[in-house]
Amino acid sequence: MKNIAESQKKYLARDRNIGFSSVHPLPCLIYYIGVIIFSMMIKHPLFIFTGLVLTIFINYIGDEGRTLKKSLKFYLFIGMMVALINPFISHEGNTIIFYFFSRPITLESVVYGIVMMFSLLIILFVFISFNQIMTNEKILFLFSNISPNTGLIVMMILRFVPLLKDRIQDISLIQEQRGISTKEGKIKKRLENGMKILNVLIAWSLEESIETARSMKGRGYGVVHRRTFYNNYRMDKRDWTVFLVLLSLIFLIIVLHGLGYGKFEIYPKVGNILFNLKDVFLYILFILYMSIPIVLEGTDRLKWNKFR
Amino acid sequence: MEQIQIKNLSFTYPNQKKKALDNISFSVKEGEFLVLCGPSGCGKTTLLNQLKKEIAPNGGKEGEILYKGQSIEKMDRKIAVEEIGMVFQEPEAQIVTDTVCHELSFSLGNLGYSSEEMKKRIGEIFNFFGMENKFYDEIKNMSGGQKQILNLASVLCLHPKVLLLDEPTSQLDPVSAKDFIQMVYRLNRDFFMTVLMTEHRLEEVFPIADRIIMIKNGRIEYDGRPKEVAKSIYDKKDKLYMKFLPTITQFYFQKEKNPAIGNIPTTVREGRRWLSVIDINKIKGKEINSKNFDSVIMDLKDISFKYVREGPYILNKLDLKIYKGEVLSVLGGNGTGKSTLLKIIGKMFKPQRGKILSNDFKIGYLPQNPMSYFLYDTVEEEICKEKENKDFRNEKFERIIELFSIKDLLKRHPYDLSGGEKQKVILASILMTNPDVILLDEPTKGMDVISKDVLKHIIDKLKNKGMTVIMSIHDLEFAAENSDRCALLFNGEIAVEDIPSLFFSRNYFYTTAINRIFRDIIPQGVIKEDLIIDD
């Protein structure tokens, strides 16, 4: 019963199938890789801040920000810690604000801490979206194309983890009747009992895996050297366009940034936050890249409204 | 033409003297529906495994098996996998991956089929089974019956010519079992697939099989069309194998002095027809003598229970009284909450709402899957080390061993026992704690008629000791035969509750085969033993 409720939730996320979540897994993966590269590479506060705002917006599109809201406090806490701790650890930089136990606290390291916090938050936030968009099915698809055997192992693990979890609940319930409980008694006793329960689980699962192995052999596992995979996903014209746009933007942004576009000096002295023409150009490219999921969602919604 | 020929096949498992198969010869025609039958341990599964060369166990093998005139050992691996498909007993253990889509593409992927070919075949299968929208479903949320159908579908993707089915319905509830067998029958009839099936519940397959082979100690005991086999069992007065026949057939042989093959009834329809030609005045019903139980030991009032906060109630305002010393069967379909109710009675779960008034009593619980119970390496330890490793090897231990007659099993590992033996060991271990109430969760699952008889005796013994037995059960015949009271669980409530003869005779659909045949003349006749033949 519990499982049914869970799977329904997952089902909804999987079958959203609109905007970015309907794009082929490969461009999706590329997008997330790009975001992570940029968030670590670019240090300019305006870029990073804009990026953060956009990832929040992407999260809002995904599930109206529900998952983000749940874990926001924790993420902010981690971010703040990074921002606070950095000035106390790193004492580089020329502009000294004050001394803390005769150690200099510099403006540079404060700024660097804040930039680091934003970068980290972008990665964390975008990871929430990654989890929603890249379902098991899609990750598996990417895996299997690289190595079919790894793909199979992942599929088997995806089956076994929940199965073992259910089983251990079952066993604990029944062993409690026999006086083997992990819920009461001395810690040593509880640990011992836990081991016993684990033993039962392992013995039972091993016993069953003999049957699984037979079933695998009976269905021809190992007959062909390289097994094949069922392809759920096909790149259509839009997917190719998204793919090419993403790749060229990543390439452009990395190269231009290397040439000094959008550079922001922190050490040894905090540089000028104001944009010059070069920076504006890169900023536009960056916004373009970051908002691709938003654009895709928007066009899909417009079409949908027209259809209705 | 003979598709499969088995010539003088003998097989001995390693380190064993006794032959598991002893000089077996028969051949199977293409498109034949053949059922292999016999008590557990008779060698029927061993025989079936020999036909699937990938999984055939090692051991001393003599004789040969030919497939289309060629020895199966010399068959091309790919062709062997494709043309001979097999479904096993445990629905859960055969599944390899997490979703329906992956499971179906597993077999095709193993043989290196292209994605396009997979798409075509899987699409076809989905259409055939009518499960189009289940493609991405996670297997863990499916019922046992659905899992077994999935296992069948996954084998069918390879377009097999022969289907080997090893007790495929033994772990399923009766409704799913019927669905599964009907599906196999359809494959046999519409696609000319050869079916070799082992089964110990002949009620369903008897009317549709072309041929039945009964095996005894590794040898073929009977071989022929179903009714011929039934007749020769009658002629030989073979009491053991008589039990495997459908109930109505057994009753026919009790009543009829000179049975003729053509008249032997095997289904309810044939049973009704037979009734119309005989003198029904000679069949009388037994008096209903129900025992009265009056001391209530547990009173469940308005019990509501659910597993997840947002989910629906599994049990909803359920009322039930439990009397001291009775055997109560809780019946109901899959997922209606029978096991949940048992666990609430056993105080393993606490209901969210409602009240339980109960005396102070001790409970013993027999889990559905015995594997979750065993902790030790030998049966002996399992029984005498009941609580906290204290050794209880005493007089009581001896008495319980005697009661269950398991003296021979004491030194064996619990995992090596058969299903029935495992149950006995668990019950013995439970009895060491002196319980007043024993809860049995699906005790007849996967059991043949003989083990069911043993279980019946055990229940009688427990009852004689003054214990209350509550079981959740799918098997209507067993419930009718062995309980003092039956309760039907539906929609979270007890829908009907009565003594078996009234419970079943008032039901129209949810009742035993005997009742469906005799209901017009003897309404209270629910099992064979309720009917008396008057000469």
UniProtKB/TrEMBL annotation, chain A:
It is a multi-pass membrane protein. It is found in: Membrane. The keyword Nucleotide-binding does not apply. InterPro entries: ABC/ECF_trnsptr_transmembrane. One of its GO terms (cellular component) is plasma membrane. The keyword Transmembrane applies. This is Energy-coupling factor transporter transmembrane protein EcfT.
